Amino acid sequence: MDAQQEHDLAMKERLDMKASRPKLEALLQKKNGPSLEPLQSTKLDPIASAMEDHPGLTREKAEEMAKAFGF
After folding, report:
1. Quick one: pLDDT at residue 37?
2. Staple partner for 71: which of 20, 22, 33, 66, CB 3.0–4.6 Å?
3. Are 40 and 53 in contact (CB under 8 A)?
4. 3-state SS class at 65
5. Contacts of 1 (CB under 8 A, 6+ apart)
6. For residue range 4-40, what is the model confidence (pLDDT) as tens digits?
7. How far, in Å, CA of 43 to CA of 55, rounded?
């Protein structure tokens, strides 16, 4: 790649960044603002969360495993 191509690529990236800056700032504001709903991980108890992550896991088996590991 020659110097002109490198310059053109750098300018394109800079323009792309300027175009997406308002969108990025809006996403950051949304992320840093107050959360309206609890995180998925805090909605469920650990057993329900494990069951959701592992569809074949039953509540009984999950409780058995938790008891075996001292939870």
Report:
1. 60
2. 66
3. no
4. helix
5. 9
6. 988 888 887 776 666 677 777 777 788 777 665 655 5
7. 18
CA dist., res. 57 & res. 42, Å (int): 20
Burial (Cβ within 10 Å: 0-12, 13-18, ≥19) of residue 42: exposed
Token pair in block for residue 65 = 């495993």
Query: Which secondary structure element, helix H or strand E, spans residue 66, and what is its range?
Result: helix 59-68
**Cβ–Cβ contacts within 10 Å for residue 57, how many?**
14
The number of CA neighbours under 13 Å toward the Cβ of 15 is: 6
DSSP string, 3-46: HHHHHHHHHHHHHHHHHHHHHHHHHHHHHHS--SS--HHHHS-H
**What is the spatial distance between Cα 25 and Cα 18, in angstroms, rounded to a whole number?**
11
Domain boundaries defined on the chain: 1-34, 37-71
